[in-house]
Amino acid sequence: MSASTVKAPSDKVPLDLELPAPRARAGRRVSPAVGLAGPATLFVLLALVAPLALMFRYSLNRFVPGQLMVEALTLANYQKFFTDSFYQEVLGTTVWVSALSTALCLLAGFPVAYLLVRHTGPKWKPRLLILIILPLLMGNAVRTAAWMVILGDKGLFNASLQVLGLSPLKLMYTPTAVVIGLVSVMLPFMIVTLQSVIEGIDENLESAAASLGASHGVVLRRVVLPLALPGILAGTMLCFILSMNAYATPVLIGGPSFHMMAPTVYQQVAKAMNWPFGAALAFVLMAVTLVLTTTANVLVQRRYRRWSE
Amino acid sequence: MGHLAIRRLYAGISVLVLGFVLLPLVVIVWVSFFENRILSFPPTGYSLSWYVRAWEQEAFRNGFLTSVETALCAVAISLALGVPASLALVRYRFPGRDAIQTLLLAPMIVPGIVGGAALFIAFIELEVLLDMDVSGTLGGLLIAHGLIALPWTVRLVTAGLAGANRSCEEAAASLGAAPLLVFWRVTLPMIRPAIVAAALFSFVISFIDLEKSIFLVGPGRTTLQIALVSYLEWNLDSTVAAVAAVQILIIGTLLIVSDRYAKLARAF
User: Fold this and answer.
1) Which residue in B has a C-alpha nearest to residue A112's C-alpha?
2) ipTM of this predicted complex?
3) B32-267 CATH choice from 1.10.3720.10, 3.40.50.11540, 3.40.50.300, 3.30.200.20
4) Once rounded to an integer, what is the mean pLDDT over residues A49-69?
5) Contact yes or no for B9 and A140 at CB 8 A
6) CA B34, B35, B38, B39: dihedral to nearest 10 degrees?
7) What is the DSSP letter of A137?
8) For chain A, which domains are there?
9) Which of A167-176, A178-187, A294-303, B256-265 has the highest mean pLDDT?
10) Are A36 and B92 an interchain contact pair (Cβ–Cβ within 8 Å)?
11) Mean pLDDT lowest among A166-170, A281-285, B71-75, B261-265
12) Is A66's pLDDT higher than 70?
């Protein structure tokens, strides 16, 4: 804005520019921003950063059954994680379930986002967006309850199969059911992220490509996809992180013998009261998520650069 | 493929996807009206008795009241901390501004279970240190819920402030209005939609939280989401469906109202 360069900053008195502004006369005063942002900053430091730091310190402590926690400086908890095949398997399950759910979200979400931006009128688009976002905020407990009703042995899905004369399927307490549940949580996130990026793509580029004879598939692959890549990456990361940390869906739909990381963290910290190991699990979960998402990000960006050259 | 065929293909996929996303909500509301004692399809008839039974269940009734109480306090905390902080982030330039912005949005990024576990451990250590109850009290729950609501408030209010015309504030200041008066009479009316949306959104985010609360609820002080999950571990009947239907109605209303003030799609 050019106007702002002409005007004096608002914390000075703009009417008598000849005189030094009162603030300046008083010497270097503390900016009001400190008072405004201070409380919130302090709150997040105390309620989030400090507890995380404490938990990280505890992940280096030793757990002695009966004594709970013994002060130490050891990597034994992390070692236990990487040597115990049970926890390796838990992490493996978490990663592949998350990757599969994220891929399904991308496949199912892209057409919806594209339709919303390119083929939906201004009257219907906001309404459809609300319909997509509403289920997202209904709470994991409610949504999971609903999937239990649908996928249960005598649930809606199997009852419908029976009406059609088909034999019932065992869905509840299977990884398939967990993936279905996770996809239904994350799809709205994916659609909303994708649609905001596709909205920024100039439609003329697509028309130009099409008028030069490119089929819709080619337009998608050569024009839309490269331009939408930042959004695709953002949506994919978001969905992957969300499902890596999913709690309610694996616990209730996966059943007692299906293990993912977040429920295991809860089990260790709150039930087994093994804080050092639970803490180590939490940090392994965050580290693995971070490493996987950054690697994917770098790989895709590199590939994208080759694409555009 | 012709243009029309492509469009139909997209529309077809979209209808399927939308149906998939909405299916759980539709089914759970439908089931809440079933007459059957044992949940089965198709229903033998319809009745409203599950709603009465849900209200008679102490866990659900108390859980609901605790959740409303907690969510209202979370709104107060997140507005009291988040609105001034947003003002600082948008209206002032100061060292460490980007870092503080990242920090204030961090509660949204740190996984709920990890943050919850960390708070749980910190609260218990605090209890030992101060010799008083923290975890399992309303205070502990409020800190956690204020924390998860704060980033959404900061996000919505900073967006509102960025869109508000700054010259109005400057005009008021140049006419001699004190900073507080400028905020109260000029800035606040301009960003009121963003604040209303932030309040409604904070309420919803707190009300549906499960991952953080699960560490922090104590005996006799359980939020509705925790009550639902513990009930679901052993039973599945239309009582849960009735509770879910009420929750869908409340949250749906709040979100549709909030969408009038600030577009929901932009909050993500």
Assistant:
1) B14
2) 0.87
3) 1.10.3720.10
4) 84
5) no
6) -10
7) G
8) 76-308 (1.10.3720.10)
9) A178-187
10) yes
11) B261-265
12) no
In 3-state terms chain A splits into helix, strand, coil percentages (rounded to 5) of 70, 0, 25
Task: Identify whether the C-beta of residue B107 lies closer than 8 Å to the C-beta of residue B147.
Answer: yes
Domains of chain B, residue spans: 32-267
Identify the residue among B121, B213, B214 best suited for mutation to test binding to A, counting A beta carbons within 10 A and taking the highest: B121
φ/ψ bin of A125: left (φ > 0), alpha (ψ from -120 to 50), beta (otherwise) = alpha
Q: Specify the higher pLDDT residue, A308 or B52.
A: B52
Task: Give chain A positions within 8 Å (CB) of B244.
Answer: 138, 141-142, 145-146
Distance CA B167, CA B175 (A): 12
Choose among B14, B16, B107: nearest Cβ to A44.
B107
Query: What does the block give as tokens for B207?
Result: 């009300």
- As a whole number of angstroms, the distance between CA B156 and CA B205 comes to 13
Checking if the pLDDT of A22 tops 60, the result is no
Please name the residue of chain A whose CA is at the shortest distance from the CA of residue B4: A119
Query: Is A191:A116 a contact under the CB 8 Å cutoff?
Result: yes
Under an 8 A CB cutoff, do B27 and A149 touch? yes
